[in-house]
Amino acid sequence: MTGKIVVGYDASPSAKRALDFALDAALANGSGLIVAHVLEWSPYTFLTKEEIEERHARRNMELARAEEAILKPAVTGLGAKGVTVETVSRFGNIAEVLAKIARDQKAEQIIVGRTGHSGLTSRLFGSVAGSLAQAAPVAVTIVP
Amino acid sequence: MNTQVKILGLATLGSAVSAVPVMAQSIDEQVNAVFASSTGWFVNLIFSSFPGTSFPWIVGWLVVAATIFTIYFGFIQFRAFGHAIALVKGDYSDPDDAGEVSHFQALATALSGTVGLGNIAGVAVAIGIGGPGATFWLILAGLLGMASKFTECTLGVKYRNEYPDGTVSGGPMYYLTKGFEERGLPMGKILAVLFSIFCILGAFGGGNMFQANQAHAQITNVVGDYPGWITGIVFAVIVFSVIVGGLKSIASVTEKIVPFMGILYVVTALIILLMNYDRIGWAFGEIFDGAFTNTGIAGGAVGALIQGFKRAAFSNEAGVGSAAIAHSAVRTKEPITEGFVSLLEPLIDTVIICTMTALVIIITGQLVVDAETGRYLLDEGASTIQTVDGNKGVALTSAAFSASFGGFQYVLAVAVILFAFSTMISWSYYGLKAWTFLFGEGQTTELVFKLLFCVFIVIGAAASLGPVIDFSDAAIFSMAIVNIIGLYLLMPIVKRELNSYMARLDSGEIRKFA
């Protein structure tokens, strides 16, 4: 095994294509796969007092749900094909977190789907793929 | 229009329709009379003066405490200021903790509970009685109050209760019991119970009735006079739907609009100041003169000081203990970091926002000066300063802003209603925490508190400003009596936390992530 590939996954059709692509790449290179799901989260939003009180419990619940409902179904059966698969779920800015995982795990590349943002929203907020292209520490493959 | 509103209101109540015109007004008068006579003794007790002076002992109590904390922690409000900003920016937040409440969110939520009518109406009351000089003492009290907030919020986080479901409850009632036990001090439980009782009164008073009262004043200022209990019922129904009906969307929308309203308010004030830039120097001159010399107001310079300190404490709640409840819900490895963050609150609330209000009122010339002597003219009762149109409280602020921006009274009316609403929701939370501390957590006991809270909204909107403001002040300040006793006895614990944290910060053990 030469290295690891980080793939951003959110169960969308585009993310499924990215995962398939990543699987082929991992099998071809003998790399390990890290399937990462990032829950969008900004520390600069406004919360009510009740939301603050419940935040810790909700965070754990949301992480567990991501692991259970999104990541687990995606990776079941992948191990049988001969790849080592890890799953990660995190909160934060999607592009930043994917870049950080790649850096921490010393991954060789990041693979994401080109999610179908409409022209206007991606102009205003930027797409994950676009931000990654700017900020990633390793090669990024964007799967259409 | 007026009759229509009255009929609508009465139909809601299901009252008899006979004697419509006289009845509505007399409900307000009755509420006012009963309220004033039943709370008078409490107000007199809290605001009694030092023997032989006109200086209320409670104001001295707060200022002395803030000064002691400032000195004891070595001017922490200036020393830790930069670090507090770095914490709020998230420089020291571990990215792996993303998804937990950030320091920024904790600060924003705590601020939305304190930024409110105290900043708009309270300051106008202070200036209306104490003259421009009150502003000086207001700013000083805000700066000193930063140290009180730091102390109480650190303790609030350190001694909170964490429950298995991940939720937390904290605040003075918890550090008074647990902190006192840890130090082997007696009376902790009794103080905690006293604090809880005062906190419930404070929630009904400053956190509720004062808000309803001034929101009503602002609405009538814009649409014309109508009975207060109608506003009260409308507010009560909305608050009821949020805190009892669980209509969280209203609360969370308010929570998102309030910060923008606050920014809009400050920016407008800044523009008015820039438009009158040639008078800014004069305004500061008035503020300094009034702070130290008798400019004709009731009580002279001491009167200005009392008003400034009183309204500052009422606005930023430093030393009152409410912020300790708000901050304790935040998860953090280092309790002291919440203390650092919270010391920014009195700065933003009092030193920045309150001062803006004061400067706008002074600069737009709302206060009437005797052309010959240069001293302020007083109203008939000789307690308040004459204003150009006889405005008081929130109406005075509204007049000052509209003098430069025609139509700003409508924006301000919306801001006041939103601020009043968000402060009410915050205080219903503080009150409820105190209530459950006394009576235990349970649906029925919680419902009783929430219903009472809604009833007080109606009373607050119907009563006149004088008795409401007296009771509100008295209730909030009584919380500070108990809380500050606790802070004095527990401040060595905060010092230990501070020293340990600072040492680790210097050694690089605590470091920036960003």
TrEMBL record, chain A:
Which Pfam families does the entry link to?
Usp
Q: Where is the UspA domain?
A: 1-144
Highest taxon above the source species? Bacteria
Q: Which InterPro entries match?
A: Rossmann-like_a/b/a_fold (IPR014729), Universal_stress_UspA (IPR006015), UspA (IPR006016)
CDD domains given in the database record = USP-like
Q: Which family does it belong to?
A: Belongs to the universal stress protein A family.
Q: Which PANTHER family match?
A: STRESS RESPONSE PROTEIN NHAX, UNIVERSAL STRESS PROTEIN UP12
Please state what the protein is called.
Nucleotide-binding universal stress protein, UspA family
From TrEMBL, chain B:
Family, similarity comment = Belongs to the alanine or glycine:cation symporter (AGCS) (TC 2.A.25) family.
Its Gene Ontology cellular component terms are: plasma membrane
Gene3D superfamilies cross-referenced by the UniProt entry: Amino acid/polyamine transporter I (1.20.1740.10)
- Mind telling me which residue stretches traverse the membrane in this protein? 55-75, 187-206, 226-245, 257-275, 347-369, 408-430, 451-469, 475-494
Q: Cite the GO molecular-function annotations of the record.
A: amino acid:sodium symporter activity
Concerning InterPro entries, the annotation shows: Na/Ala_symport
Q: How does it sit in the membrane?
A: Multi-pass membrane protein
Q: According to the UniProt entry, where is the signal peptide?
A: 1-24
Which key words are in the record?
Cell inner membrane, Cell membrane, Membrane, Signal, Symport, Transmembrane, Transmembrane helix, Transport
Name of the protein: Alanine or glycine:cation symporter, AGCS family
Cross-referenced NCBIfam families = agcS
Q: Where in the cell is it found?
A: Cell inner membrane; Cell membrane
